[in-house]
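A favour, since you know our structure tokens better than I do. Would you make up a two-line entry for one protein for me to read? Write everything out right here, beneath this request.
=====
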Amino acid sequence: MNECEQIHPLLRGYLAETLSAHDRRAVARHLNLCASARKELDKLRAGPVKTPVNPVEPPREPWDLKILRWLVKKPKPKPKVMAEPESKPEKTLKPAPGPAMTAPMAASESTLKPSPSPTVKPMEPTPVISSAPPGANVPAPVLAVARHSHFKPILLIVLVFGGLIFLTHFIQNAGDNFLVKGIKRWMSKNHVMGVNSSLELVLDLTNLPHWNGNAAPVASAREEMITDSDHFNLFWKFLQPGADPPEVDFTKNAVAFVFTGAKATPGYIVKFKRMENYSDKTVLWFDEAVPTAEQAATATVTRPWVLQMVPKPSQSPVLIQKIQ
């Protein structure tokens, strides 16, 4: 057993001064040399450490009960103000006057007669909500205040539930709401808060009316949209001279055309595939079929073209792109 193990049990006696002189000298010498013994002695002097007691918080009332309590709470009635009673002058007993004292008494009565005191006007009580039984005579202001106080909580409850129903319907149908769509389109066009263009609708164009050929009067490649009947009839005369133009309702539809330019061999066919509606643009995709080996062997210059009827685009600009 080392010296620390022998001295540490004696520290309590050292503080209580119950050790012998020999042991006290040994403990004092050890305290000068051992830091751990000094720390333990300081702990014994400080006493036991008291742990803080955490206060117990009362249970919190749910938020829905708070709202109901606020809605249904009744206004406190105002206290009635009592009118002060009028002060009346005190009556004094007068002795019956004799025949000899009539004149002097009359003079003294005229000099000692008290002046009338001013009357205090009572204050009018403020109207309060009456708790009178049904059938009793209740003033009109009191009835108006009572009806208003009972109608206010009902109106607030109806407004709260109506707002919740509207908010739920708005969230569930946010994708079909024109206001949400308009805001989203504006944000995507102006790139506000990092909102990018989003695809909203894809239409298949392969089953819609279209007209094509391989002898366009234009030698260069060109893509464009036709949105009125005059331009459509003009293009049709150049592409199909002598033929009657087909009927197209331009109030609901439009016509997209593509000229691919000059090709060295026949067999090139242009077809529109799909229409993609984005929040800030419309994209029309077309595909170009390449000729077969037999058609490629024929050296004949062609100029393929196609006219495709499409639903009237809801977003501009309209881009016509080739599928790579």
Notes: The beta strands are 199-204, 210-213, 222-226, 253-259, 269-278, 282-289, 305-311, 318-322.
